[in-house]
Amino acid sequence: MLGLYFLFAIPPLLLGFYAQWKVKSSFSAMSKIPARMSGAEAARRMLDNGGLQSVAIEQVSGHLSDHYDPRAKVLRLSQDVYGGRSMAALGVACHEAGHAFQDAKGYAPLVIRNAAVPAANFGSGTGMVLLMIGGLLSFKPLILIGVALFALVVFFQLVNLPVEFDASARAKHELVAQGMIAGNEEQYISKVLNAAALTYVAATLQSVMTLLYYLYVIFGDRR
């Protein structure tokens, strides 16, 4: 049974490690490509052009800790992105600004994702505990409850994919449309955003494969 688990778990785990390496290496490489403005300036310009003057931009600590807070309506950018005048900084900053656009327009996948956060957090914690205990005891009813809870995590991950892809698409469109980058510079932005997208794909694959493994444990030996 342990060998079967590794068969399900190892491929997405390896993809996850590769995705983390890819996003770090791409950000580092694109940080060396200069831009006309800082990440904070690009995000501010994108937000203002979209009528989102009320969305604030703050600098926070950490590396690649950038995010948009829909409750506070604040864009929080790490130091390298906030003040960085590079293609990497522009890509990350405007990607997060893309989430602010989604929030303002009531983008359906984002609304669903935000609503699913509490359930996904509960499913990730309690569901995994029940799955592990049920697996150790070979107690299928407990595994089944864990699977039902962990399915909430998979749902969250699946809904998150279009949210992240759409934010990146909005970022690239606005950067070119507003003349913050030239058309031939979009390739640099894409390298950073595509690498980041791979991390979301890897996380989704990991959760899906985990769910499939436990479904196989429950139903795989039935005739």
Automatic annotation (TrEMBL):
Domain of life: Bacteria
Keywords assigned: Membrane, Transmembrane, Transmembrane helix
Residues forming coiled coils: none
Transmembrane parts of this sequence: 119-137, 142-159, 197-219
Pfam families recorded: Zn_peptidase_2
Annotated protein name in UniProt: Neutral zinc metallopeptidase
Organism: Rubripirellula lacrimiformis
